[in-house]
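Customer escalation, tier 2.

The customer says the design service returned an amino acid string that "doesn't look like it belongs to this structure." They asked us to rerun it and document both sides in this ticket. The original structure tokens are below, unchanged.
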């Protein structure tokens, strides 16, 4: 089994190595490799095993036992003195070697609803585990979303700075030509060279940020941190906001996995209260044994031979007084229920706060994209006009530097706003309990 898991893990790493991954491929790979999900599935397996354990208690329990006993040699024979008899009458000789084998069973008839309550609790715990897995899958998917778009943004910003450097190199060549012909001063040429150097420093920083973003992306999909991966980033969709805050509040309270998990755990706690209170009632079991013994005490007189007998009966057990054990256990179960109810109320408040915050964040990012699109159009036009003027020496190097800076800033701002809008939309969807993969 370990070898199979290792092969699967190595295959996923090789699959991602050097491949340009789409968002869908990244999420599928990340969910497959997620350690958190493996832990959640392990918890589900534990809950399944607990239910199987309780189901087994409804069925008859069989036990096989065997025993051998050797008596000391000084055991006398069983003798009786009859009236007027000259000597004692021997009824049985001592049997020094004793063998006994027993096959017994016990079948619960009535347990004060303890077993049925425990079974219901186990079912609810399984449902809670399934909801936790669903929540964990969404969390893993969101982390991949976030890392994916941050990697894409870092890559795009690096490209924008590289393109800006190419444009600056052209302007720098023109400026040197102008300087050689006495059309601009040495100071104007130095301004452009300083701007070019500063932009190269920006590119170095962008390269570092890109490598860090790649490392975080690789971590999110569960592969080696230094793996050579790339993202397509072609899944940017236009996002519109047309839902009222009241509608999304209602959706969140209906769909959030955390609320479902707590509701199931609350139902399980009610079952455990019933299970604890079951000790107020008697327990009735059907019991039976098949005995195979040498000697068999049911056969008289005793003889050194194996004989078989069976027995069947009912056992009633009732705790008449246990110094408050049952009431204490019931109180603990009831307090656990109270704690879960308070946790649920707190969770509802936190969900409403989270949803409203994410809703406002997405609206803000949507507006930022619109503003940045206009700003980029203006910066492009300003750069185009300033570049033409610089070529004919109507604009100064300062004007050109300002235009280049504004254009690069506008491009960076728009790319950042687009990514933030995509992430905030997914973040809102996750807070509403929607499946995001």
């Amino acid at each position: 089994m370990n070898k199979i898991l290792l092969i699967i893990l190595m295959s996923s790493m090789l699959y991602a190595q050097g491949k340009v991954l789409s968002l869908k491929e990244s999420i599928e790979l990340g969910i497959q490799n997620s350690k958190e999900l493996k832990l959640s599935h392990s918890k589900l397996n534990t809950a399944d095993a607990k239910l199987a354990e309780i189901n087994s208690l409804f069925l008859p329990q069989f036990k096989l036992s065997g025993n051998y006993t050797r008596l000391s040699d000084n055991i006398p024979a069983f003798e009786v003195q009859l009236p007027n008899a000259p000597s004692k009458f021997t009824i049985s000789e001592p049997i020094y070697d004793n063998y006994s084998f027993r096959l017994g069973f016990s079948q619960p008839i009535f347990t004060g609803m303890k077993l049925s309550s425990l079974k219901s609790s186990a079912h609810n715990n399984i449902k809670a585990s399934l909801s936790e897995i669903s929540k964990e899958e969404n969390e893993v998917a969101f982390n991949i979303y976030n890392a994916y778009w941050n990697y894409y943004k870092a890559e795009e910003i690096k490209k924008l700075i590289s393109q800006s450097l190419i444009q600056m190199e052209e302007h720098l060549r023109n400026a040197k030509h102008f300087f050689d012909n006495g059309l601009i001063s040495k100071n104007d040429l130095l301004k452009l060279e300083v701007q070019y150097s500063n932009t190269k420093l920006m590119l170095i920083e962008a390269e570092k940020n890109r490598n860090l973003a790649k490392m975080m992306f690789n971590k999110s999909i569960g592969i080696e941190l230094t793996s050579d991966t790339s993202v397509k980033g072609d899944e940017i969709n236009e996002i519109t906001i047309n839902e009222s805050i009241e509608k999304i509040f209602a959706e969140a309270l209906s769909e959030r996995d955390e609320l479902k998990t707590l509701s199931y755990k609350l139902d399980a706690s009610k079952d455990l209260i019933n299970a604890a209170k079951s000790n107020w009632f008697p327990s009735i079991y059907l019991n039976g044994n098949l005995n195979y013994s040498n000697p068999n005490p049911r056969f008289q007189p005793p003889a050194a031979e194996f004989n078989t007998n069976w027995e069947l009966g009912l056992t009633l057990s009732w705790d008449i007084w246990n110094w408050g054990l049952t009431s204490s256990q019931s109180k603990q179960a009831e307090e656990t229920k109270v704690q879960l109810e308070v946790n649920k109320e707190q969770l509802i408040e936190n969900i409403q706060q989270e949803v409203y915050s994410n809703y406002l964040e997405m609206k803000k990012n949507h507006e930022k994209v619109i503003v940045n699109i206009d700003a980029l159009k203006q910066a492009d036009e300003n750069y185009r006009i300033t570049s033409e003027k610089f070529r004919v020496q109507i604009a100064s190097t300062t004007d050109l530097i300002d235009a280049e800076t504004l254009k690069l800033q506008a491009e960076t701002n728009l790319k950042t706003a687009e990514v933030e809008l995509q992430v905030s939309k997914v973040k809102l969807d996750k807070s509403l309990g929607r499946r995001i993969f």
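Tier 2 assessment: The sequence is consistent with the input. The CA atoms of residues 135 and 242 lie 26 Å apart. The two ends are 28 Å apart (CA to CA). Sent an explanation to the customer and offered a walkthrough call.
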